[in-house]
Amino acid sequence: MTKSLIFSINKVKNPINIQNKKRKSWTKQEDELILNLSKTLPRKEKWILISKKIKTKTPLECYRRLKSIDPKFKKGRWTPQEDFLLLQLVNQFGRCWNIISKIFKNRSNKQVKIRYDEYINPKICFDKFNGTEDDLIIKLYPIYLNKWSKYQSHLPNRSQKRIKLRYLFLTSKNNNVANSDNYSYSTTSDNNFFDMKNQGINEQEICDKIF
Question: What is the model's pTM?
């Protein structure tokens, strides 16, 4: 889905008159309807038409639901081969997640973006936060609140998720847990590509294994 199409979905003014109530969870019938209609309807205005059929969900909610239930999208841990390929594709195409996800075929735009930004971006620092960074996060919160992406203009080597979790730790009532920088966040358990590099396998050898 292109950025323009997503933008058009967000701009639709109450196409199905959804009430501002707490939305119910998805039913099996709704999931089956999305899977079937997504294959048959024309791409133009597909999600608007699907949301009209379901009646209780927005076009964007329908689109996101398909990404989570469609069996063609892979779930779970990333392999070292996937990590290596993702790094190469970002070097080639930049942050064009729509293009990159199409090359992967079984990973969504959101999956490739999160994997790169939070885990394998070479610019991201996984060291402990220092006092200066902590003070800056606390100082910036009244300005940016929970818009974590804006903090990165001041902390460019920290991911949004790590900044958020660091703030939650700093403002928690009981913040004397062991190793606060790993507060609900694992930096290495799913980082298979760099695990291979740490084992002494260079990028060319990884590439040979893949291709």
Answer: 0.54
